[in-house]
């Protein structure tokens, strides 16, 4: 098969980590007889510098005409003093909106080889940890009506519509079917009307997935459970605000943010894939950035947008094998390991494919 | 001095833990020449059984006429099938409202002797952990307008007024002045208008407390920082919803929920004090419940409502000493320690006063 991939290298370490990742993808193409056509497009700071906008229309058009988008990282101090809508972050929000990316998938994975950097005790995390937060990304209180009454009061509205909840719930159950068939819905239905509404729709969608086990947690309890018993989770589905909090907490308990990918999906199979870490301009261009989060983002792209499950599994296995062989970039290096740069880490992973 | 204390033993283990705690308070009275007059009043399940309401008016009146309220725990499965407004929890919400308790103080304390039950690695928590979440308790989205448009949409409004933010911010800074003089304001000001409003008022209040260091965290980042670097915090001040999530997360990282007290304060010095754990009806009446959370709630009462700092310090020191002597109730027992019941734990702490 032939796949069209829009590639947004972005700023800082973006070009290096994306470069290492597309090489992994090329090797997958070779092994499985796929061809991946990359179209490089601009967004973020580099787009501001060359086109005077963080998100050129051409970028949106090319992304829309692709099967999936791979993004490195956007932003850096160079552009931090620009007004809000001219900043690189506006490019990211703009692209999510333009592409209708309403489902944010945030896996929290702990690798046995990196257990030392996990803040939780070994008896809590066991050998591995692998959960997925499915966060609603384009609704809820972050996009609700807001208002202010002079100096007297201010408010934001947490609102969800039926179609918004239906599609994110469906996405979560579909993902659970590809994993361990367990969905934990997180809300605050004991207090919030919008949560009771949300939960009623999740229960409705659950009927179409009789093989998936469903349970419910209040958000305050979920924040506790992530710390004392994270292994109970497979897929967590939740709203924009709660998902923002819980996905960040979940990534932190793994202790290895430099290793974590993300996906933002729209209807159908289209999606954008990116590491959750930033553009790290201080180490850009030195061949020391860790490309693993981006390489695993590529595995997510194969799994969720291209339906190439075997290929995705192979990349993830190769990453684990490379770690077990002792190869480490500087950010995850510990004594006795073999320190490698961005390019060599990519090559070692390719050798293990 | 003579102090009037309204005592609500409540349900389950409530009467036992409150009984152990008032004995500690009596001993403090003896040592320091104070007299504490207790008036026992009903709330929760026991009030439902005897007065057919979870919160008799007499209880409110007596609480209002007191210097402070000490509460054990309310509720149990016996009353779980009653309608919402007839349940024991309604008594708790009702009393908070009737007494104007807008500031919820939730200390998260890790005792060196109980480090083994902390879910975080020792290098993260060090020898001790002692932070305080100051949560706004009677405003925000839990009390905002709510609405529903048939099956199409539902919403809740997160609103704060200027007086609401002023008083909770002031409370937080006052508390920080009695602690390590550091306040971390937690909001989501990069996205929410109500958070920008909240933050502007916190900044205004900060001017009156030039000795207190102030910083700001977004709520998603705060959820992460609690896991990887909890020692950075002294006082966290935040809204009702964010405080619900973060205070529960903070208590969980201590690994000893049976040890944690809480205070709910109104204007002036009046407050209600209670352990954060529940009524544990399964172990009620067996002299095995842990009274420490309630005894430390009494210390908070001395500190915040009665201005008896030395007396409060003494109770806290006695609890630590008792733990260091190896005395443990069943819930915190580990091998090699001396297992004691509710009454004996209280007595050992009294001996150490
Ligand atoms: Mg976040
Ligand atoms: Mg809670």
Q: What is the compact description of this entry?
A:
2 copies of one chain form a homodimer. With 353 residues, chain A is of the alpha/beta class.
Describe it for me?
The structure is a homodimer of 353-residue chains. With 353 residues, chain A is an alpha/beta fold. Chain A is 41% helix and 23% strand. In chain A, α1 packs across α10 (292-304), α1 runs parallel beside α12 and α10 (292-304) packs antiparallel against α11. Chain A has helices at residues 14-32, 45-51, 57-64, 88-98, 122-125, 162-178, 193-206, 219-228, 240-254, 292-304, 309-324, 342-351, and strands spanning 2-10, 35-40, 68-73, 103-110, 129-136, 146-149, 153-161, 182-187, 213-218, 235-238, 261-265, 271-275, 327-328, 338-339. A ten-stranded mixed beta sheet of chain A has the order 2-1-3-12-11-4-5-10-8-9, with helices on both faces. A two-stranded antiparallel sheet of chain A has the order 6-7. Chain A is built from twelve helices and 14 strands. In chain A, a hairpin with a 5-residue loop joins β11 (261-265) and β12. Chain A is globular. Chain A folds into two domains: 1-107 and 260-353, Isopropylmalate Dehydrogenase; 119-254, Isopropylmalate Dehydrogenase (3-Layer(aba) Sandwich), CATH 3.40.718.10. The model of chain A has no long low-confidence stretch (mean pLDDT 95). The structure holds magnesium ion (2 copies). One magnesium ion is lined by residues 244, 248 of chain A.
């Amino acid at each position: 098969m032939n796949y069209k991939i829009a590639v947004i290298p972005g700023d800082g370490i973006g070009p290096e980590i994306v470069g290492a990742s597309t090489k992994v993808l090329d090797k997958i193409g070779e092994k499985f007889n796929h061809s991946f056509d990359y179209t490089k497009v601009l967004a973020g700071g580099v787009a501001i510098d060359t086109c005077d906008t963080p998100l050129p229309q051409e970028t949106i058009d090319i992304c829309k005409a692709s099967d999936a988008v791979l993004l490195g990282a956007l932003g850096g101090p160079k552009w931090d003093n620009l007004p809000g809508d001219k900043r690189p972050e506006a490019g990211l929000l703009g692209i999510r909106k333009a592409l209708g990316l309403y489902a944010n998938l945030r896996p929290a994975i702990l690798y046995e080889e990196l257990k030392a950097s996990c803040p939780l005790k070994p008896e809590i995390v066991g050998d591995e940890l692998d959960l997925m937060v499915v966060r609603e990304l384009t609704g809820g209180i972050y996009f609700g009506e807001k208002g202010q009454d002079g100096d007297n009061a201010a408010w934001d509205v947490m609102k969800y519509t039926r179609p918004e909840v239906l599609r994110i719930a469906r996405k979560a159950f579909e993902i659970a079917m590809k994993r361990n068939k367990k969905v934990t819905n997180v809300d605050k239905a004991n207090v919030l009307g919008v949560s009771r509404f949300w939960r009623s729709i999740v229960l409705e969608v659950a009927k179409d997935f009789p093989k998936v086990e469903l349970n419910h947690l209040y958000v305050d309890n979920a924040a506790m459970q992530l710390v004392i018993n994270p292994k109970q989770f497979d897929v967590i589905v939740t709203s924009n605000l709660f998902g923002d909090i819980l996905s960040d907490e979940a990534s932190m308990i793994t202790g290895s943010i430099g290793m974590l990918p993300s996906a933002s999906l729209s209807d159908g199979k289209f999606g954008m894939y990116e590491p959750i870490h930033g553009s790290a301009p201080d180490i850009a261009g030195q061949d020391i950035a860790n490309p693993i989060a981006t390489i695993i983002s590529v595995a997510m792209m194969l799994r969720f947008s291209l339906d190439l499950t075997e290929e995705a599994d192979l990349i993830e296995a190769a990453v684990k094998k490379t770690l077990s062989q002792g190869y480490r970039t500087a950010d995850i290096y510990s004594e006795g390991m073999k320190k490698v740069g961005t390019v060599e880490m990519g090559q070692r992973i390719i050798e293990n494919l």
